[in-house]
Structure formats: structure tokens, C-alpha cells
């Protein structure tokens, strides 16, 4: 049996072309999480992480608290929906209900900033004259 000569173009892998830093940043993937209130996906920079600590819900501003976390859009709309659906205790895998007073006092949840929630009472609807 004769040994055949190998073609060098078949054996060698193609060389990677160096990509500039700006090009790399543009195609880099960023972490995406789902808001437990409205179930919309968003970048982690747009959402706030909350954690259950001793039966209370706490905002994890530095995203470093231990344990399972849930993600919410800032604003009272998504927090209210998550409470109504009992999504926080389910996402955090905590039995029972959680105290949300600490989260409600956080400045990010003080004013609804239009974070993908349903229109609040501050918006007025047009009234149609039935006659």
C-alpha cells in the first residue's frame, strides 16, 4: 500500500482574521433576562434584580446578593402585576407570600417610567359620545 502525499491546503485550518475591538463590541452578546411582571425580555441593564431575604423582597442593586433572583422593570406597574400573578414567590421558589414594602420604597419603583406595562391611571382615554 502506498502512502499518498497530503495536500497542505486541506490539512491546515484557515487563519482567523483579527477583528478590531469596535467590530468585536458590536457583535458581542449581552445578557438578556425576562421581567417576571410583564414577561418581556430585556437587557440586564434595563431590569432590576430582586432577591428574597428572610421573607422580604430586597432590590439587589449591585447584583451580588446570594440566592435566586428575579428580574423586574423599574416602575410600579410590573411589580403590581408580578404580585397579582404571584410570580415573585414562584420565580424565587419561596413558599408563601413575600413582603414587598422594601421594594416599593426603592426610588426606581416610585414612578412608572413606561417600562412596557399597561397604561396606568395617569393616562386618559378618549371618551366617545354615544349619541
UniProtKB/TrEMBL annotation:
Domain YlxR: 33-95
Source domain of life: Bacteria
Transmembrane segments: none
Official protein name in the record: YlxR domain-containing protein
Organism encoding this protein: Amycolatopsis sulphurea
Amino acid at each position: 500500500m502506498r502512502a499518498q502525499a497530503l495536500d497542505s491546503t486541506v490539512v491546515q485550518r484557515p487563519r482567523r482574521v483579527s477583528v478590531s475591538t469596535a467590530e468585536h463590541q458590536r457583535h458581542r452578546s449581552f445578557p438578556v433576562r425576562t421581567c417576571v411582571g410583564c414577561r418581556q425580555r430585556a437587557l440586564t441593564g434595563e431590569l432590576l434584580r430582586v432577591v428574597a431575604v428572610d421573607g422580604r423582597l430586597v432590590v439587589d442593586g449591585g447584583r451580588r446578593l446570594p440566592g435566586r433572583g428575579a428580574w423586574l422593570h423599574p416602575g410600579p406597574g410590573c411589580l403590581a402585576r408580578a404580585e397579582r400573578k404571584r410570580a415573585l414567590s414562584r420565580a424565587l421558589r419561596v413558599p408563601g407570600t413575600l413582603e414587598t414594602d422594601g421594594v416599593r420604597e426603592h426610588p426606581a419603583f416610585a414612578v412608572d417610567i413606561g417600562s412596557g406595562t399597561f397604561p396606568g391611571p395617569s393616562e386618559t382615554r378618549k371618551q366617545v359620545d354615544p349619541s
